[in-house]
Every structure is written in C-alpha cells, then in structure tokens.
Write a structure and sequence with these properties.
eleven-stranded mixed sheet, 491 residues, 12% strand, Amidase signature (AS) enzymes, 11 strands, binds glutamine, globular, alpha/beta
Length: 491
C-alpha cells in the first residue's frame, strides 16, 4: 500500500476508475490483517465492508454516487454506536453491546458512501492519554524511536484511530476529543487531528464521557482531508440539543492558505522550561514561518491556563460519574449475577469497569456530593468561565493561537508514569480548548532527535473552523511534512 493515499487522492483514483472500492477495501483489510500487532481494531467488519464496497462500485457504474468520496474505507473509534456492529467503548461492561441504532456522525459517513472497516481501539470510555486503559489491551504506535526497539504509546484516548491512519490501516478515521483525545494521539503519530467547536458535530449516538466537553472529529493524513471529513460529519442535528444551528461552511471548497495580515498569538503561559528543546524549536520555527508567509506574531496572555487541568479533572469526572450510572447490568452490556438487585449492580460495575474508569467515577461522585459540591464542582465551573473569558479577550487581538500540542513526543508503553496525576499532564495544552468550547487542530511539524513526530496546535474562536483550517493548510503547504513510520510490524 502506498503511503500517499488521502481522501482527496482516493476520490480521484476512484473517479478515474484506476481502482474500485472493492479493491481498495480489500487492500486495507489486508493491511489490517498484517498490522494486527498494532492492535488498532477492536472489531473488523470484513464481510460488511466488502458488501458495502461492492454496492458502492455499483452506484459508481450507474452514476448514482452519494458523494465524491463514495467507496472510500475509513475506521471508526469504538465509541460511536453503529447499528448491528459491536460498540464496546473498549470496556468489559459493553463488550457484548450491539446497538440497534446508528450515531448521527456514522450515519453521515454512510450517507456520503464511506465504507466502515471496523471499530477502533481507544482508552476505556475515552478516559486516558495512552490507550492503555482499554479492556482490549494497548495500541502500539507505528513509530519507534531510532534509539530503541521498545514499543511506544500512540496517545489516547483515540489511540487506535490515530495509529490506524499513521500505519495505513485506514486512510482517515473518526475520533472524539473531551480533553485532547484527537489532538494528542494525532501529535504522537504524525497525523492531523481536528477537534471542532463544541456543537459543530452532533454527539448523538456517541457513548458519552463528559457531555459538556465531548466532541467528535477526524484524524487524517492532511489538513485538506480534515476539511473534507469535517464537511461530511458537521452540521446541526435535531437529535442533539447542544448541536449548533450555525450554518456549516464548505470547508474544503473554501480552503484558502493565504494568511497575509492575520495575527497569530503565542500565549506566554504555555512556555515552560520543561518543554523538550526540539518541541520549543518547532514552535519557534513555525511562528517564524507564519511571519514570513505574511502573518503578524503577537505575544498574548491566557492567565488562567494553569488552572485548566485541575478544573477539567473535576468537571470531566463529575459528568462521567453521572453518564456512567446507566451501566448497571439491567438493560444491556455485562451482567454479573448477584444475590439480589443491589448485589447484581455492585458486582456488574466492579467487574465491568477498569481501574481508571472507577477512579473517575469515585472522583466525580465525591466532587458532586453535598458538602463538596460548592468547594469543587462550582469552583471548577467558575474557573471554566474565567478560561473562556481569557480566550474571548485573546481573540479580540488575534485570529489564531499557536502552541505545542503535547508536552512531549510519544513515550514507551512500559514507561507510563504510575501516578495518574503525572499522566493527566499529557493534556495540559489541549484541555483549555475543550473547556472554552473552541476548535483546535494538531498538525505534524517535524520529527525530534529520536525521529518521533512533533505536533503543533492551532486554536481559533468558536465556529471559526475555516480560519483554523486555512492557517493549518498554510503551514502544511509550506513545510510539506512527509515523514512516515517504518513499518516494523511487517518484518
Ligand atoms: N486524556 C484526557 C482524559 O483522560 C482526555 C480524554 C479525552 O479527550 N477523551 O480525560
């Protein structure tokens, strides 16, 4: 399989009859088979994908296409409910759950003729930054350090989604991002990860983690593909009361990399001595490049940045503890027999949830309990408002903000810190964006001294996805990042 397949290039190949959807789907299924060691997929929908591909080829013959992208196979994070296809959220408690409905986002993919290759591994209930909390085991990053043969984390929680795109186990995938789960794994795997504004993409039919923060988005090889994919999945949905009625734009058609006269902010609070020198260098180089391309670079301040992580780790678990109350063994999912109803609930939940999920439920229940509610939950909500106003002020001065995506590049699976709070620091640059409900994108910029990808993050004001993609495209066009991992799993 060539590495340069993109949604854009595949649409042209299909249009010119250079390849059929069935051939393409078979190629990717072969890649999935030979890439088993990456552990990207929880479920491979082999038969269904091939049947759907044949149907797409027939539509092409009869000139009855659903979209230009009809027949292109993609991967779906195992958090989107898919009718008739197991949806586990990478949890034991949902390991046997087969939804009888389709999420709005996956329905939109189907409406565009995209073919689902299967469901991608992720952290359990999307809680984590390493993909190690999955009931189905960790995902391996397609990248390895030049100095070691040890396996690396792909990031999380959309680790399978990012690794699959990076390792050519699909051309593009769907992820979700509550505190960084699209952008952080994209950064660790040299892919492009886009978290849209809160409300831009419907959450209906996605297994909920923290409903005021969750947002679905694409992981792709290029910024152009991110625009194409956002066109397919975005828009108002009556079934999601938090989905925005703001008209969506034609992101791909209107992609315009001209950034002359734009103002780009560099937030001083994101600077740190602990940032690896190579990440700092990329950040500086990118700012210089934007300047050369006609933008003005301004130092800005987002004073409440350092309070974002503590606020997130109160709000997200609080919402999670409430969302996860529904998994009780009664209606669906795992049920462990008990002596009576309460015993059944307790056994089901203690066997069905993994440690990290239990930790979040405990934290969430604690911060919501009477007596602590004001001290923790209400306080965290106040901090959230302050963070939002930091960005409101910043966007009076600048068009976009440039930061690193993550405080480090991918690290060894075996080296994950045992202290969960250390792990939570992975999201330090991404979490404020979710708290403020803004769109953010991570794009690969360079590789570090170990040949591991470094991602940079761009942020714009709410519903300014077009501007976000335009600036990202400007960088992409200028640097032409084309590093790909050596496929060690094929040897
Ligand atoms: N890593 C963060 C967490 O564990 C973010 C997860 C996400 O965005 N789904 O909560």
């Amino acid at each position: 399989m060539k590495n340069n397949y993109t949604l854009k290039s595949l649409a042209t190949l299909l249009e010119n009859n250079k390849i059929s959807s069935k051939e393409l789907t078979s190629e990717y299924l072969k890649n999935i088979e030979s890439g088993k060691e990456l552990n990207c997929y929880n479920t491979v929908s082999k038969e269904k994908a091939l049947i759907d591909a044949e149907k797409s080829d027939e539509r092409r013959k009869s000139q009855n296409l659903r979209s230009k992208f009809d027949g292109i196979p993609i991967g779906i994070k195992d958090l989107f409910c898919t009718k008739g296809v197991t949806t586990t959220a990478s949890s034991k408690i949902l390991s046997n759950f087969v939804p009888n409905y389709e999420s709005t986002v996956t329905q939109k993919c189907d409406d565009a003729g995209l073919i689902s290759l299967g469901k991608l591994n992720c952290d359990e209930f999307a809680m984590g930054s390493t993909n190690k909390t999955s009931f189905f085991g960790p995902v391996n990053n397609p990248w390895k350090s030049v100095n070691s043969n040890n396996k690396l984390v792909p990031g999380g929680s959309s680790g399978g989604s990012a690794a699959a795109v990076s390792g050519d186990l699909c051309v593009a995938s769907l992820g979700t991002d509550t505190g960084g789960s699209i952008r952080q794994p994209a950064s660790f795997t040299g892919t492009v990860g886009l978290k849209p504004s809160y409300g831009r993409v419907s959450r209906w039919g996605i297994v909920a983690f923290a409903s005021s923060l969750d947002q679905a988005g694409p992981i792709t090889k290029t910024v152009e593909d991110a625009a194409i994919f956002l066109d397919i999945i975005s828009g108002h949905d009556e079934k999601d009361s938090t989905s925005s009625v703001n008209p969506k734009e034609n992101y791909y058609e209107n992609l315009n990399p001209d950034i002359k006269g734009m103002k780009i902010g560099i937030p001083k609070e994101f600077r740190s001595d602990k940032l690896p020198a190579s990440t700092q260098k990329s950040w500086d180089e990118c700012a210089d490049l934007l300047k050369i391309n006609g933008a003005e670079i301004l130092d800005i301040s987002l004073p409440h940045t350092m309070s974002a992580l503590p606020a997130y780790y109160i709000i997200a678990p609080a919402e999670a503890s409430s969302n996860l109350a529904r998994y009780d063994g009664v209606r669906y999912g795992l049920r462990v027999k008990g002596n009576d109803l309460i015993d059944m609930y307790e056994k089901t939940r203690s066997e069905g949830f993994g440690d990290e999920v239990k930790r979040r439920i405990l934290i969430g229940t604690y911060v919501l309990s009477s007596g602590y509610y004001d001290a923790y939950y209400i306080k965290a909500q106040k901090i959230r408002s302050l963070i939002k106003s930091d960005y409101v002020e910043a966007f009076k001065k600048v068009d976009a903000i440039l930061t690193p995506s993550t405080p480090s590049t991918a690290f060894e699976i075996a080296n994950e810190p045992s202290d969960p709070v250390q792990n939570y620091l992975n999201d330090i640059f991404t979490v404020p964006v979710n708290l403020a409900g803004l769109p953010g994108i991570s794009i690969p910029f360079a590789n570090d001294e170990n040949n591991l990808p470094i991602g940079l993050q761009l942020i714009t004001n709410s519903f300014e996805e077009q501007k976000l993609l335009n600036v990202a495209r400007n960088i992409e066009e200028t640097i032409n990042y084309s590093e790909t991992p050596e496929k060690w799993w094929l040897k």
